[in-house]
Amino acid sequence: MTSQTDAVGGKYDQFAQAGTTEALGGNIHAGYWDSGAEHVPMAAATDRLTDLVAERLGLQPGQRVLDVGCGNGYPAVRIAETHDVNVTGITVSAEEITRATALAAESGVADRVTFRLADAADLPEDLGTFDAVFAIESLLHLSDQASALARLRRFVRPGGRLVVADLCQREPFTGAGEEVLAGMIRTLEIAGINSEREHRAGLEKAGWDLLELLDIGENVRPSYELAATAFRGIAASAPPFAAADVLAAAELMSAFGQNPSSGYVLMTAQRP
């Protein structure tokens, strides 16, 4: 694994040990709120985003699904349970592997949901072939997303789908927003946040046929302040090795969520 991969894995190990996952209801990705449903708690909203991803995968019972950047395993377990499929999750965080494996066992799906330490930029050949693949807020950690998407394509059968949920720059961040973006990239070990055009170009270069691209930024916007509030609470009692980074992440997420240039894309593509 590369030094960047090690840094990303270390960051997620640190955040997991500090208790950030539990504070967000299990998932470590944004939530989705329907219009007028702002009262919905974070845990339900993050599950809702997982469901939106799963709906677009076009799954059939018994199929194999790859979860790229599986976090603590909540999306993989939820999709396996609701769609009766087999899911393999990969992450560069050893701490997440431990937690995800335990969750699958506790949920009674360990025979259908497995997790392994692997880098999306350098997927091991022994993964096999999948009917579908999804990546929720994981590709932004890769410096060359197009190459990773092209490699993912090799592991998906013809006609299989890819669904990506990720941050997006609607417009370039300017003024104070530039400092916020730079802080997000530095503190959360992000390689970069694409524009919609860059997301489209990456999929095209990698050989995927784009079926749908939605900017759901307004539906996920409440996530940032809710996450920031949770992180501030964690920082107050977190171990010294994590407290400063957790607090810095809280303030950056709050500022990022308030910036109108921050968007969020939900993309569905298909292997020709």
* Form type: globular
Q: Quick one: how many beta strands?
A: 7
Return the string of H and E elements. Answer: HHHEHEHEEHEHHEHHHE
How much strand content do the residues show? 15-25%
Query: What's the pLDDT, averaged over the residues?
Result: 92
Helix content: 40-55%
- How far is the first residue's CA from the last residue's CA? 30 Å
Reported for the largest beta sheet, the result is:
7 strands, mixed
Structure classification? alpha/beta
Separate helix tally: 11
Uncertain stretches: none
Radius of gyration, whole Å:
17 Å
Strand order of the largest sheet: 3-2-1-4-5-7-6
Core attributes:
alpha/beta; 48% helix; 7-stranded mixed beta sheet; 272 residues; single chain; globular
Overview of this protein structure:
- There is one protein chain.
- Strands 3-2-1-4-5-7-6 form a seven-stranded mixed beta sheet, sandwiched between helices.
- The protein is an alpha/beta fold and 272 residues long.
- The longest helix is centred in the last third of the chain and has 19 residues.
- It is globular, with a radius of gyration of 17 Å.
- Strand 2, helix 5 and strand 3 form a beta-alpha-beta unit.
